[in-house]
Design brief:
Elements lengths: L7 H11 L1 E2 L2 E2 L12 H15 L7 E7 L7 H16 L4 E7 L6 H10 L4 E4 L24 H8 L2 H13 L5 E6 L3 E6 L13 E3 L4 H10 L2 E3 L6 H6 L5 E4 L1 H6 L10 E9 L2 E5 L1 H6 L2 H35 L3 E3 L6 H18 L3 H10 L2
Parallel strand pairs: 3-4, 3-5, 8-9, 8-10, 11-13
Antiparallel strand pairs: 1-2, 5-12, 6-12, 7-10, 7-11
Length: 369
């Protein structure tokens, strides 16, 4: 796979036409509101510090993006932290421009931008790689692979995570380098009726991620997996195009999915402690100087820590908001989780066998011990 690496000249010319930074548009003079969000205050502090620092000519312009439009989404906080650290450590030699959904709400669009060199780093679900010759990455989409976020972190920050980074780099000829493992929370079912067992979803259409193993699971439960673009899901739920969906509290709450009739019942299946990839072109990374790599590595590590912290922080508050808005919740303790796991584990075993990844699966299972 060949891709164009963005030159500094091209990046600077694009920046002149965009003028968008971490979810905020540039403006001239506006009256400050009486109250500001924590994100706005943090941005103001960062801008003030940048104004006070001596100006330095940018050596690199980094355009980084996620597909989420809300400034309250954890991805936003991760991107903002990357900008803060990269620009501070480089003393302005790296300029970072962040996009919250403004390069596209569809992750495929973001990957295309990365491939073209129109973005240097993007956040994406791993499933897209299965269509470009990396079937191994679908392991990250296996349901009930992790039991908790402690288990997830032990796996992703340990031998398993390192091994997956190597597989991705090797199988894509360095086109994709994982700079950090992010999350979007733990995914649950939500739909037009409450469920407690796999049998309860029989015959329901459910919007799922575009992953073969995810579809295999819901089909085995008797549901009908359906692909709907993320930006179109609210309307699909509202109009009855799909009976249900599955996602984490924060993302479904920020998009008001729980306020639709077909998103009213949230049932805590906790089927997926999600993994998202903070990606960069590995070939472009290799073209940087050691000093530049150091700035990028430090910023990516800080961004990963900030994004995860926000995910964990928002889980409870997002659930509380959904309930306050009228959603009806079936708690995890009231779900027949063993019945769901009984369907998921054979799918895990088969996937590992078919893709020569039994050793990788054992790494994950051992990390829970």
């Amino acid at each position: 796979m060949k891709k164009k690496v963005l030159s500094t000249v091209l990046a600077l010319s694009m920046v002149a036409g965009m003028l968008v930074g971490c979810g905020s548009s540039a403006s001239t003079t506006t009256e400050a509101p009486a109250e500001t969000t924590a994100a706005t205050e943090a941005a103001a502090t960062t801008e003030a510090a940048a104004d006070a620092a001596p100006a330095a000519e940018a050596e690199l312009t980094f355009i980084i993006a996620s597909n989420q439009t809300s400034a309250e989404n954890p991805y936003h906080f991760g991107l903002a932290k990357f900008k803060e650290v990269a620009e501070a450590e480089s003393n302005g030699k790296i300029e970072v421009i962040c996009h919250d959904g403004t390069l596209g709400e569809n992750e495929d669009e973001l990957i295309e931008k990365l491939n073209m060199g129109a973005a240097q780093m993007v956040v994406a679900s791993p499933g897209f790689m299965t269509s470009i010759g990396v079937p191994e990455v679908d392991m990250l989409s296996l349901l009930y692979l992790f039991d908790s976020f402690d288990h997830w972190e032990a796996s992703m920050d340990g031998d398993f995570g390192t091994a997956m980074k190597d597989v991705i780099m090797e199988k894509t000829n360095k086109d994709y380098k994982v700079m950090g493992y992010w999350s979007s929370g733990v995914r649950d079912y939500y739909g037009k009726k409450a469920i407690k067992t796999p049998a309860d979803v029989k015959g329901l259409t459910i919007r799922t991620q575009t992953s073969g193993v995810v579809n295999d699971f819901w089909q085995a439960c008797g549901a009908i997996p359906t692909n709907v673009a993320w930006g179109e899901l609210y309307q699909a739920l509202q109009q009855g195009v799909v009976d249900s969906a599955e996602n984490d509290y924060t993302n479904l709450m920020l998009k008001d999915h729980h306020k639709t009739d077909n998103g009213h019942f949230i049932c805590e299946t906790h089927h997926d402690f999600t993994t998202r990839l903070f990606l960069m072109d590995g070939n472009y990374y290799d073209s940087l100087t050691d000093e530049q790599k150091g700035w990028i590595d430090d910023a990516a590590a800080a961004a990963t820590e900030a994004e995860r912290a926000k995910v964990y922080e928002m889980m409870d508050s997002s659930k509380e908001q959904c309930i306050a808005d009228g959603a009806e919740v079936t708690e995890f303790a009231d779900m027949d989780i063993d019945a769901f796991k009984a369907i998921a584990i054979p799918i895990q075993d088969k996937f590992a066998t078919d893709n020569n990844m039994t050793e990788y699966l054992e790494m994950v299972r051992n990390a829970a011990k």
